[in-house]
Amino acid sequence: MTSLRKFLFVLLTLSTINCFSINIIPYPQQITKNNGQFIIDNQTDIILENGNPAIKMVVSQFIDKINTVGGSVFKIKTEKSNQSRKSIVFQLVDSFKNESYHIQITPRSILIQAAKANGFFYAIQTLYQLFPANIYANKLNKQTKLTLPCVEISDYPRFKYRGLHLDVSRHFFSVNEIKKYLDAMAVRKLNRFHWHLTDDQGWRIEIKKYPLLTQIGSRRDETLIGHYYQNFPQKYDNTPYGGFYTQDEAREIVRYAAERFITVIPEIEMPGHAMAAIAAYPFLSCTQEKIKVATKWGIFEDVFCPRDTTFSFLQDVLTEVISIFPSEYIHIGGDECPKTRWEKCEDCQNIIKTHNLIDEHGLQSYFVQRIEKFVNSKGRKIIGWDEILEGGLAPNATVMSWRGIQGGIEAAKAGHDVIMTPGTHCYFDHYQGNPDTQPIAIGGFTPLSKVYSFEPVPAELNANESKYIIGAQANVWTEYIASDSHLEYMTFPRVSAMAEVLWTLAANKDWNRFKQNMPKEIDRYNVQNINAAKVFYEIQSTIKALENNKLELVLFTDNPFSKIYYTLDGTIPNNNSKLYKSNLIIDKSVLLKAQAYANGKKQGPLYVKPLIQSKISGEKYKVNNLNSWYKGGSEFALTNGIIGSTKTTNDWVGLTGDNDHEVLYEFDKLTLIKEISIGILSVPSLRGLISPEINIFTSTDGNNYSQTANLNLQNEITNEWKIIRPKIIFTPIQTKFVKVVFKNAGMFTGNNQKNGKSILLIDELSIN
Ligand code: ACM
Ligand code: ZN
């Protein structure tokens, strides 16, 4: 072979192999790619030699899916009708572990092996992912050729509990939407749906013995508008809101999920988050006073009182719940239960005495243990949020660790099963992209990459303790998620990253491969009409300080196939603008605008970032009165070039104290300065008030300061959530030390829930 022909041959061979990129999420444990392909057509038999009804159901699901193409109506056969025909064989092999499967595709046959229906089901999910994304369309295009690459796949899950949660109390989602949610879970091999059915803002499951739970408890008079902290005073929409599932509908969800090998775990919250139940049946609370279903978010003092009458009620409720949900687990909540009512309640105090409990935490533990005993007596187990550790863990409880991983570590060390759901990585109500481009979220920042990076087994656990980490779960709380499309936006595609965390062995995870697979994964969501977020295409940035107060900006997207174009002069960039290649050096304040493109098309929103560069960029400074809740993310928060967002307090430095607030900066040498500017965030509902007055002091020795400038901001103080950025210009002065003193705005008394010392929130100090 001449070298040219050899080259062409190699090229052709490679392109034959590579025309199928193996793009499976979650990624299987072992894949071998071979040459060739299998085409499903009317020369193909689908064979199940022997299988139980569950396996027959799974194979029928597969046949239903592919029957719309291929020129033939496929049926399950027990053997090949003719030796010359091709075959897809589903073969029972008892030695396979639960949920595991093996696929071998050659040009003449596909052999699928598993021991159980769930293994065959996951094998089929994997096959679907080898087809073009439109396999997920309800009706396949007749032209779609069902071609599969010749591969061999051995696969099994890392964790047995692979969960996704949905809060239907804060907002209600229809049976159809939940089915869509379950469909998307199944595609990604998730197997537990945690259905948060009750909370302060609505009771959502029909209980026949207590009809008021849904007649009264499923409806609230109105709903808070905007973010909890957005308006001061808070505003409401004056529109009744409600909804619940009948028991028949809940059973339909259970059935639909089971067909997809998903177990539905119902959550009935207790003893806290119980206002909707108490609104329906006031005898359940300590005060027994009539209350309303909550109309805003948060943690409320009215909780279940642990009297015998309450237990009778809860046992009746759980009895009906258990009859609807065959799940091994019943989730009983247990989180965020204030003890204030219990402290003042005579009945509660008597129970504490009678049972020799230490205090109200002991009473919470008594509550959970008594419920556990009942649930266990019905042959089921409880899961509780990690607060159930406080005051002593119920003997057989599984712990869902949400306030970080510490609760999970403690529970695993004590020999309890644990499901990891730390807010840092698993809360999909958090922002997933630049808050300025996103719909209002509760807060936080949990982008796709962070979800992907999650490791459910903490390094602190030894091999034996690690066995108690049975899996993890993404939680979707819906305070700020009112519509189906928004629910889908927050949940997907972060679920894809979580699926890979849960299914794929840590050693087989690869963020670069995952990113390359994302465009097709987004196509899958699109074909299923799921409004997955496209934040994957958005520009992100990191910034770091260089010598001489220059800043270095790194721009990137998660999409490895995109190019970024930018401008620094305020004009809108297009793909003729400057192409971003590597680090961008910022040596003056600029307005950066950037746009990502792929295949010549715009991707994601325009990225707009004002960058502040000054004589103190990247330098250290000192502040007094630092509030530990608001550290701004780093010790350079005030000089990192980035102005905080109006949507979160993540980037803001908060100062609280009795005296005035100060930021002190020391230059290396005498320096001429003439202007200072500073951003201040006004958030009255968080006690974040604008300072009434700023005074600038300078000094050459750090001992003797003189007043250099003054700015009165009294007229800027506002009830709105907004940023101001005053600039103070003064006669140029040589100085070594600069002290910016903010007059303390004093006590904040306008909000009966949040009264206390005001907080000054500042970001990005510039001195020139
Ligand atoms: C929780 O997020 N309160 C469990
Ligand atoms: Zn009580």
In short:
The protein is of the alpha/beta class. The longest helix has 18 residues, at 360-377.
Describe it for me?
This protein has 768 residues and is an alpha/beta fold. It folds into 4 domains: 15-155, Chitobiase/beta-hexosaminidase domain 2-like (Chitobiase, domain 2, 2-Layer Sandwich), CATH 3.30.379; 161-527, Glycosidases (TIM Barrel, Alpha-Beta Barrel); 538-611, Immunoglobulin-like (Sandwich); 622-767, Jelly Rolls (Sandwich), CATH 2.60.120.260. Helices cover 24% and strands 29% of the residues. Strands 29, 30, 31, 32, 33, 34, 35, 36 and 39 form a 9-stranded antiparallel sheet that branches. A hairpin with a 7-residue loop joins strand 37 (747-748) and strand 38 (756-757). The termini are far apart. 45% of the residues are buried. Zinc ion is lined by residues 286, 305, 342, 345, 347-348. Zinc ion binds next to helix 10.
Structural key phrases:
768 residues, alpha/beta, Chitobiase, domain 2, 4 domains, 39 strands, 29% strand, globular, disordered N terminus, binds zinc ion
- Note the total helix count: 18
- The percentage of residues in β strands lies in 25-35%
CATH fold name of the largest domain, please?
TIM Barrel
* Bound small-molecule species: acetamide, zinc ion
**SS elements, strand count:** 39
Give the end-to-end Cα distance, rounded to a whole number of Å.
Answer: 70 Å
Rg over C-alpha atoms, rounded to the nearest angstrom: 30 Å
CATH architecture descriptor name of the largest domain = Alpha-Beta Barrel
Q: How many separate domains?
A: 4
The helical percent reads 10-25%
Structural shape: globular
Structural category: alpha/beta
What characterizes the major β-sheet? Answer: 9 strands, antiparallel
